[in-house]
Amino acid sequence: MSTPQFTIRPLDPFADAQLLHGWVTHPKAAYWMMQDASLPDVEREYMAISAAEHHDAFIGEHEGRPVFLMERYDPAHVELVGLFDAQPGDVGMHFLVAPTDTPVHGFTRAVITAVMRTLFDDPATRRVIVEPDVRNTAVHRLNEAVGFEIVEKIAKPEKDAYLSVCTRESFDAAVGAAL
């Protein structure tokens, strides 16, 4: 999978574990909820995702350098079971941009746009579903910028979340179909 600016490859739970450990335990990744994870914890988590039938993980690269983590899941089977009536064509998504000491204005928005474009490259994808923590105001702004609408507040075991949905049409309207 690729976009004009980013290359997205399947995550290798062994080869990428050290990299991911640094990302998910970084203070800026507090909403990822792995702050206290050990390296073996991260390996186990991503081995389980790699083995799962309804969950995938990917590394996004920019100019050959890993810069983000993307997860794709089927909300009928993972993450939102019992909390959401999934429809055919629904795809769940998580993303995490690598921490950096030299932030680039607009980079995170470019990442979420690339993630969404990658998901919508599959013609079977009708809607992208996310469930960010209600306190994560930065991601709510990003989600809105690419066409997500909050459907409802839901109580998950680990957090209160805003269940949000983005259709292909709302994504295209938000970012421009030709981009």
TrEMBL record:
N-acetyltransferase domain mapped to chain residues: 6-169
Pathway as given in its UniProt record: Siderophore biosynthesis; mycobactin biosynthesis
Pfam families: Acetyltransf_8 (PF13523)
Entry keywords, A to Z: Antibiotic resistance
Origin superkingdom: Bacteria
InterPro entries xref list: Acyl_CoA_acyltransferase (IPR016181), Acyltransferase_MbtK/IucB-like (IPR019432), GNAT_dom (IPR000182)
Function, as annotated: Acyltransferase required for the direct transfer of medium- to long-chain fatty acyl moieties from a carrier protein (MbtL) on to the epsilon-amino group of lysine residue in the mycobactin core.
The protein, known as: Lysine N-acyltransferase MbtK
